[in-house]
Description:
Elements lengths: L13 E3 L2 E2 H20 L2 H20 L7 H13 L10 H13 L9 H16 L7
Antiparallel strand pairs: 1-2
Amino acid sequence: MRFEIPQFINVQDKLFGPFSFKQALYLVGGGAIVYTIYRTLPGIFLLILGLPVAAFSLALVFYKPNGREFIDMVEAAFVYALSEKFYLWRRSEKNERIAAERKKARILEPGEIPEDKRKKISDLAWSLDILDFDSDE
């Protein structure tokens, strides 16, 4: 028995031409706000208030930073702005103790080669340099 596996589960369905329902809602909502500003306020306010609303509405529909929707970035910015951000760094005795133990035991940092291994490597390189591999002679 064969089962079909859904292929494009991350792609939203297109309901209104090339736009999904959510994108169409952003466009209609932004357009309605700009139209309300146009009908109720003098012309200069249309530029001051309407232009940012239109730009934000278009960004919600078309701008996809790093392949993700712009609304996700806006949501993350709001969560970050409203969350508590109090960080206090204190030197802990545990970190100092670990550093002292490393110094005492001479634990190597990542990428560091011990001295005896360096000598073996240099000796091997020297012996390879002086050996003649020409088999013609």
